[in-house]
Specification:
mainly alpha; UDP-xylose transmembrane transporter activity; UDP-N-acetylglucosamine transmembrane transporter activity; membrane
Length: 331
C-alpha cells in the first residue's frame, strides 16, 4: 500500500512540478535561485513542525553526517536550477539528468570497487550515447539560433558552461547517493528525518543569493494578477506558479524518500526514470519545445539503456518465457 502511494506521489508531484517550473523559467529564465529557496523553505518548515516536533526530537543519524550530505544536496539543487540560466532547454535538462545511472556506476566502480555484469556496462554505453546525441543536437540548435548575431560565440559559450554545470551536478548527485547508501546501512533508513535536515541545514547558504532572490521577488510581484480558482483570491501569476511548484516539489520528493525505504534502489530508479520520460513527452507536446528526430533517437537510447540497467527487459523476457517452458515440460 505504501509503495503504491509513493509511486502515485512521484508521478503526480514530479510531473506537475516540471510543468510549473517550465512556466516560471519561460517568463524569467534566471529564477532558479528563488525557486530552490522556496522549495527548501517549505519542506524545512513542514519537517520542523511535524518531524522534529519544533526541534525537540533529536536526530537518529549524527548531525555531522547530515552536514556532509546537505553540502552535496544543496550544491546539486542550486547548480541544477541555475544551469537553466545558460541557454539550457527543459527537455535537454531532463535528458541530461536521466544520466544518473552512468554517474552512479562510474563512482561505484571507483569508490566502492564494485563490479557489474556485461549487460550493465552495455546499458551505460547506451545511456552515454543517448545523452551525447541529444547534447550535440542541442548544440547545433544553439548555433543556428545565434547564427548571424554578433554575440553568437558568447551564446554558445554560455550553453557550454550550462552543460558543464549539469555534468558536475550529475557526478555530485551520484556521490551523494553512495554516501547516503553507506549511512542508511549503518544507522537504518529514516526518510522523514533525512528529508528535513537535507532542506533545513542549507537555508543559510541562500544568503549568498539574497540579492538575486530579492530581485526576482520584486519581478514576481509585478507580474499580471490572476484569480485563484475555488478560493477566489487574486495574486500575481508568477507567485501562483511558484506556489504550485513548491507544493508539487514537496509531494514529489516525499514520494521519492518513501520509495527509498520501501523498495530496492533499482525499483526507485525505474520509477523516477519513467516519470522523467512522461515529463519529457509532456514538455515537448504541451510547450512545443524544439525536438528533432535525432533528439527522439537519443531519448529512446537513454531509456533503453536505463531499462537494461534495471533489468526490467530481462524480467519481462523471463516472464514471457515462463509459460512456454512449462508447456514444453508438459509435452
Amino acid at each position: 500500500m505504501a509503495t503504491g502511494i509513493a509511486v502515485a506521489l512521484v508521478f503526480i508531484g514530479c510531473c506537475s512540478n516540471v510543468v510549473s517550473l517550465e512556466l516560471l523559467v519561460r517568463e524569467f529564465p534566471g529564477c532558479g535561485n528563488i525557486v530552490t529557496f522556496a522549495q527548501f523553505l517549505l519542506i524545512a518548515l513542514e519537517g520542523f513542525i511535524f518531524e522534529t516536533n519544533f526541534g525537540r526530537k533529536k536526530p537518529t543519524i549524527p548531525i555531522s553526517n547530515y552536514v556532509i550530505m546537505v553540502t552535496m544536496f544543496f550544491t546539486v539543487s542550486v547548480i541544477n536550477n541555475y544551469a537553466l540560466n545558460f541557454n539550457i532547454a527543459m527537455p535537454l535538462h531532463m535528458i541530461f539528468r536521466s544520466g544518473s545511472l552512468i554517474a552512479n556506476m562510474i563512482l561505484g566502480i571507483i569508490i566502492l570497487k564494485k563490479r557489474y555484469s556485461t549487460s550493465k556496462y552495455l546499458s551505460i554505453v547506451l545511456v552515454s550515447a543517448g545523452i551525447f546525441i541529444c547534447t550535440i543536437m542541442s548544440a547545433k540548435q544553439v548555433n543556428v539560433a545565434s547564427e548571424g548575431s554578433e554575440d553568437g560565440f558568447y551564446v554558445l559559450m554560455r550553453w557550454l558552461i550550462g552543460i558543464s554545470m549539469l555534468t558536475f551536478a550529475l557526478l555530485m548527485s551520484a556521490r551523494m547517493g553512495i554516501f547516503q547508501e553507506t549511512l542508511y546501512k549503518q544507522y537504518g533508513k529514516h526518510s522523514k528525518e533525512a528529508l528535513f535536515y537535507n532542506h533545513c541545514l542549507p537555508l543559510p547558504g541562500f544568503l549568498l543569493f539574497a540579492t538575486d532572490i530579492y530581485r526576482h521577488c520584486d519581478l514576481f510581484t509585478q507580474s499580471a494578477p490572476v484569480v485563484i480558482p475555488v478560493f477566489g483570491l487574486t495574486m500575481p501569476i508568477m507567485w501562483f506558479y511558484l506556489l504550485i511548484n513548491v507544493i508539487t516539489q514537496y509531494v514529489c520528493i516525499r514520494g521519492v524518500f518513501i520509495l527509498t525505504t520501501e523498495c530496492t534502489s533499482l525499483t526507485v530508479t525505474l520509477v523516477v526514470t519513467l516519470r522523467k520520460f512522461l515529463s519529457l513527452i509532456f514538455s515537448i507536446i504541451y510547450f512545443q519545445n524544439p525536438f528533432t528526430t535525432w533528439h527522439w533517437v537519443g531519448t529512446a537510447v537513454v531509456f533503453l539503456g536505463t531499462l537494461l540497467y534495471t533489468e526490467v527487459l530481462s524480467s519481462i523476457w523471463t516472464a514471457l518465457r515462463g509459460p512456454a517452458i512449462k508447456d514444453k515440460k508438459a509435452e
